[in-house]
Structures are given as C-alpha cells and as structure tokens.
Fold this protein.
Amino acid sequence: MLYQLLDVVVTLINLFGIGIVFWGFVVAAIGFIRVKLHHHRVVYFLKEASKIRAVLGTYILFGLEFMIAGDIIHTFIKPSQEDLIVLVTIVGIRTVISYFLGREVDQARQDQIIKTG
C-alpha cells in the first residue's frame, strides 16, 4: 500500500516538473511572439531574446529539479541494480544539463545587468 502511494507521489512530482517546463515554454513562446510582432529592430530583439532565454532556462532548471527528486524517490521505492544504474545515468545527464543551462542563465543575467547598468 505504501509503495503504491509513493508511486503516485513520484508520478505527481514528475508531472509537476513537466508542467513547470511546459509553462516555461508557454511563457517564453508568448514573449518571443510578442517581441517578434511588435519590435522589428534587431538590437531590441536580441536584447529581449536574451531575457526570454534566461526565463525559459530558469523554468527548465526548476522543472528538472523536480524530475530528479522524483527519480530519486522512485529508486528508493524499488531499489534494484538496474534502477540504480538508470537513476545514476538520468541524474548525471540532468545534472550536466542543469549545470550548463544554469551557467547560460547566469551569463544572460550578467549580460542584462551590464547592458542596463
């Protein structure tokens, strides 16, 4: 019974993470379309595109954290060597993605501070 409940919790955590990433895509897509439709100057577009990328990257990072948490809980529920290998692989890939995406988001924010400061 407890394992079934935890399976549901893991599914909800993963769905929440996916929802965050999807919401970030929607926010970024709307921002991109708005900028593209209303502003035709390349310099302004590039500045706004950098902001949009930072926002999308932040949502992706946040969503990935939930998905990693779900994977960790899932492995504790049903520990097997195969599940552990899959977990290490998934967490490794997501951690690398998170690291580089985080650096890109930080760089975009620094660029924005420099441009506006």
Residues 2-116 form one domain.
